[in-house]
Amino acid sequence: MKRRATVNDVAKLARVGGSTVSRYLRGIPVRPNIAERVARAVDELGYAPDETARALRLGRTRTIGMIVPRVANPFFSLAVQCMEEEIQQRGCTMILLTHQDRMAQQASHLATLLRCKVDGVILTAAPATTLQNVRSVLPDVPIVAFDAFLSSEVDSVFLGNREAAFSATEHLLAHGHTQIACLTAKEHIYSYQQRIAGYSDAMTRHNLKSILMTAPDYDTLRSALKASIQSNKPPAALLALSDVGSLNVLRAFDELGMSRSQYLPFVGFDDPDFAALIDPPLTVIRQPIRKMAHATLRLLFQRIDESAPHEAQQMTLPGELLCRRSCGCA
Amino acid sequence: MKRRATVNDVAKLARVGGSTVSRYLRGIPVRPNIAERVARAVDELGYAPDETARALRLGRTRTIGMIVPRVANPFFSLAVQCMEEEIQQRGCTMILLTHQDRMAQQASHLATLLRCKVDGVILTAAPATTLQNVRSVLPDVPIVAFDAFLSSEVDSVFLGNREAAFSATEHLLAHGHTQIACLTAKEHIYSYQQRIAGYSDAMTRHNLKSILMTAPDYDTLRSALKASIQSNKPPAALLALSDVGSLNVLRAFDELGMSRSQYLPFVGFDDPDFAALIDPPLTVIRQPIRKMAHATLRLLFQRIDESAPHEAQQMTLPGELLCRRSCGCA
DNA sequence: CTGTTAGCGCGTTCAA
DNA sequence: TTGAACGCGCTAACAG
């Protein structure tokens, strides 16, 4: 096992000074014949700069930290995928951390990112996180909030949750249903709160009372839904606020032994692979995840380059109602 | 924006030498009253060691690189999730890179991991990758191959693909079917080749001819499947070699306008969330992903600690046949 | 057990 | 334009 080559090894072989090698590699003009010699030496030794040394010297690491609740979930796995592609494309690498909605873990991750001196952070914060929580650990690192509100003082990218839920509800209303229930576990999550607000907006607009079903976890939610369906005043249609929510609605129908014709009309969120393939095909609000990832990184790199305006930017991208059949459309 | 505190700042405040601070932080015994002073100074300055400096000094980064084809896929997203949890738990951080089955991108990623001086690599190699390809870039970094064969000279963790496909096929055979077709796109992927072998083993054992349907991509595969179903000699049952494969089988049925009762019996691989919820519930080979992740990291850290035997270890974990109804079971 | 010193590999002064 | 010397923050070696 031989040591990796360093700038000085290259310099010696090319019979030049170390700083000349450094300059050559960074594209700063050097005399042509010297450039030639350096190039050959680099090639011969298989030299590649050591990022750890460069990081120490420059104080920048070309590394972006991403903290999300989890990745085993269609929404986040696609988001992570898109982010990774773009980060890569910009010559950086991504450190991925998951907090599982636990603030303690999130705090520990932020500390890790501080020690690793990441150049920027993409954060889907755990519920109840304040800017104070984050800034007390990471005072001066560019941050973009993704999918979860953190503060109006940081750049943020979201789906237009409220409007999306509003239009989904309006769609169900247009089918003539009035007893529309809105279901979610994890009601403390920002995006879901916004979606609940949008649902309520639509119900209120039609002088209808909101029927909100929430629970601490999906198993409990499913039980509540089943009980409600079997009660003497069952809902006529359902709005599920996430892909996992939709799955649990289906599972509830299944566990009640309902046939396809007995299924309640419903609309979900997100557009996982299976949505179009099950029976009935799911009508959903599709999030423009790729665009959201792109926007997030644009904001983040603007901060890193210091080419951003001082005030924080909040970007909201519209969801798209993908009308299939679960809502009742033919 | 004030500078982050360094060891020397702490040392000065605690009126001790820098190395004493370093030792205290690393758990090496120091005199109690000194420890006390250092602890207070650390606390007061909010000191946290700079990993980039430590990395340069030690040559180790406490960073693990993971390269997978993609993460927007139920199998890999869960694998990444499990790996991340364990890596975190061992006090390291994960760099995540995706190669999308492209060797050029994989090579570039390997180079990135070299420059970043990761302590270890988990690699799901792109098809046709040789050990030579990898080692020419990363000569001396511990590597574990996960889910894709690389070489018998590196530690590896796989599903028992061949046995799993064998038992899935046997199950379909036990239902009395003989014209069992095996479907996959991406037949060049190692795991799929193994599964094909297992399928063939079972068919051969019953003196039946294998019916292999492959295609360069899933859209083409789906077309071929539809044509085959509509031909005058349609298959009687299907074995899909991945979750995406199962999805495409369902989609083919759907696109042909087949009713549930016309669905061909079939068995898939992987156990995505929707598998149990669709109609019919999917019978699948479930991979023990969490255990596979655990095994992978155990092997990797054994290499990193140099507590591993010299020769490479190949671990194979058994899949589990989750019998639901799509196979024809009541 | 403690403090001083050197050097990991790089980029960046500052003379020449 | 070039090369020698310095220092980023840390830990290991050494002398006290």
Molecular structure report:
2 copies of one chain form a homodimer. Chain A contains 12 helices and 12 strands. Chain A is of the alpha/beta class and 330 residues long. In chain A, helix 11 links the parallel strand 8 and strand 9. At the A-B interface, helix 4, helix 5, strand 2, helix 6 and helix 11 of A face helix 4, helix 5, strand 2, helix 6 and helix 11 of B. Strand 2 of chain A pairs antiparallel with strand 2 (93-98) of chain B, so a sheet runs across the interface. Chain B binds a DNA duplex (16 and 16 nucleotides) through residues 6-8, 11, 16-20, 22-23, 26, 28-31, 34, 49-50, 52-59.
Short synopsis of the structure:
With 330 residues, chain A is α/β, with parallel strands linked by helices. The first copy, chain A, has helices at residues 7-14, 18-25, 32-45, 51-58, 74-89, 103-115, 131-135, 161-174, 190-205, 218-230, 243-255, 289-304; strands at 63-68, 93-98, 120-123, 143-146, 155-159, 180-185, 211-215, 237-240, 266-269, 283-286, 314-317, 320-322. In chain A, the strands form 2 sheets. In chain A, strands 2-1-3-4-5-11 form a 6-stranded parallel sheet, sandwiched between helices. A 6-stranded mixed sheet of chain A has the order 7-6-8-9-10-12, sandwiched between helices.
